[in-house]
Amino acid sequence: MTRLSLLGSVLCAALLPSTVLSACATDNGDAVHGPQFGPTPERPAGPIDGAVDPVPEGGSSPSDGGPEADAPVSTCTSGTVVVLAGGDTALSGAAQIAGGAWTGAAIGGGAAKSHPAIVPFGTGFLALTRGPADKLMSVSFGASSWGAATAVGSETTIGPPALAVVGTKAHAVYLAGGAPSLFFRVESAGTSWSAAQAVTSNAVQAFGQSAGSLSAAGADLVFAQDGGDNEGLYTQRYDGTWSAGTPVVGAGTLTTAPPTLAAIDGGKFDTVLVYADNTVNHVIGFSTRDATSKLWATATVTNALAQTAEQPSLARVSPTGLVMTFRGNDQRPYTMRGTIGASAITWSAPVALLADTSTVDGPPAIARGVCGDEAIAVFASGGQVKATRFRGASWSVPEAVSGASGTRVSVSTR
Questions:
Q1: What is the CATH number of domain 80-413?
Q2: In the chain, what are the domain boundaries?
Q3: pTM, whole model, 2 decimals?
Q4: What is the pLDDT of residues 14-65, one digit of tens each?
Q5: What does the CA dihedral 119, 265, 344, 18 come to, rounded to 10 degrees?
C-alpha cells in the first residue's frame, strides 16, 4: 500500500450469498484490453459452483473443453493474435497471423513465474514477464515471431508486471521483493528500458503485498494496487510525477489478488477498476473514475455470483461494453459483461466459458477478436494452451495453440 492515513474499516458495498466456495489464491495475470466484443451467450443464472446449462439461448453449444478442434476457416488478410505461456522454468510464444495456422516455440532463457503482460506497441507487441531468479524480462514480437527474452537491467519482481502504453512510450510498474515490497516504474520508447524509478506518494515510496495494475487514460498513466492491510484499494496517476495515493471508498480487497484496470474513455468515465474483495467468497467489486474530476466512485459489487480469489482479465469491448473473464472459486473459467451507461456501469451474471465442467490451470485471458471474431479467450488446462473464439452467438470449440505450453497464459491482438 502507499503510506497514507488509511480509512477506518472499509467495507464491501454488498453482502454475499451464504454459499461458500473453495478459494485458492495463486499467481495472477495482467489485464489484456480489446475494443470489440459481442454479447456473451446467456445461461440460466445460478451459483457458479453449480450446474451450468451448456447450450446458450439463441446459439449453438460453446466450447466443450474436450478434444481439440481446428481453427475456424478464415479468409481475412490482416489481424494478429499473440500468446505467451509458461511456468516457473519455461516460457513459450505463439502467434496466429491473418487467420492462418498457429506457430510458436519455446523462448530460451525465459520463464513465466507469474502471468506475463502483453500490449500492442509500435508495429508489433511488447511483453514483460517474471523470469528465472525473479528477473524482470522483456520480450518483443516483430513481423512474425517472438524474439528472445532479455533482462530489464538488474531488476527483479515477485509478481506479475503491469504494462500500459501512453503516447509513444510503454510504462511498466512492478513489485520488487523485500520488507516491505516496493513498487518501481520503468519505461521504454521502443529500443531499451529506462533505469528503475520509485513509485512515490507524498515523497514516500509505495509498497504492497501483491502486484498492481496499469491503464492509460488520455495523457495519464493510472496505477492501482491493494492496500497492505487487506482493507484498502489505492490509485495514483502519473503524468511525469506521481499524484498522492487515493483510497477507493468501500473497497475492501483480497491482498493476494491484484486489481485490474481498463480504459473506458469517451463518456462520463475514463477508467474502470475491478478487484476481488476480502469477504469469504471474494466477490468481484468495481469502481469508476470520473473523466472530468478524476475522482473514483464508491466501490460496489459487479454481481454477487462473480467470485474469484485471483486477478480478473478485463477488456473494453465496444463504446458501451466491457467483458471480463476469471477463474471461479471452483477452478472453472467464467465470463461476464458490463454495460457502460450514461451514469453507471451494470454487470450481467457470470456464465461458464466452457460447456463442460473442465477446470483451468489459472485465470483465462481475453482480447478483442480479429478476422471476424468478436473476441478470443485463451486458457491453460493440464498445461495445454487452448483458445476459444466468440462469433455470432457462441464460443467456439477450443483449439490447441500450437507452440505454446505452460500453466500461465496471456493474449493480445491487433
A1: 2.120.10.10
A2: 80-413
A3: 0.82
A4: 333 333 333 333 343 333 333 233 333 333 333 444 333 333 333 333 333 4
A5: 10
